[in-house]
Amino acid sequence: MTTRFDIQIQLHFEGKDGLTYSKEVIRLLDVIETATYGSDREDVIRASNVLDINPVIRDACLERLRHYRHKRFLLEEARPGSLALVGLVAGVGLYVFKKTIMESFTEGFKDSRTNKLLKETFRDLVDEKCLKIAENIRKQLIIRQISAELTSLPPSNDNSPQIIIVNITPPPTKSTKWEEIINLGNMLE
Q1: Has this prediction a pTM greater than 0.85?
Q2: Helix/strand/coil for 132
């Protein structure tokens, strides 16, 4: 079940003749990974400043974030059509931060004022995090020269997530050998 504190990213691929190269899917998933990693780093730094956390704990959290590569985007569905993947941004920043602090304070942390403040801080960051992820995705798409249109939608109610929609359109290119093979297959039918 999603809430307004979730961020959903929808990837819509418009392939030629309904076909999408797996390379393009992988490239875009890497864009999402890079964008969410940058956002998680900013979340940890901001929470460290708000909570006045020891720099050693902050640095440990930042180091641990790297261990969650390719675990930041949770695919929840694939839709028919050209290709649509829908997933949620994982709460890696908050998870790593809490795990690191809890190791320092053990059980007393769960009911502590610090834990409550930490949750409030990350709740307050959700809107900004969504905008930052969208901005990071846009930058990565430009850097990697991927043609796409980005749209951000606010939650429609308290139980719905914020949504980032990425519509990927293939750039007009000359026919490649691979496309010729596909066309040959169609010709043989």
Answers
A1: no
A2: helix
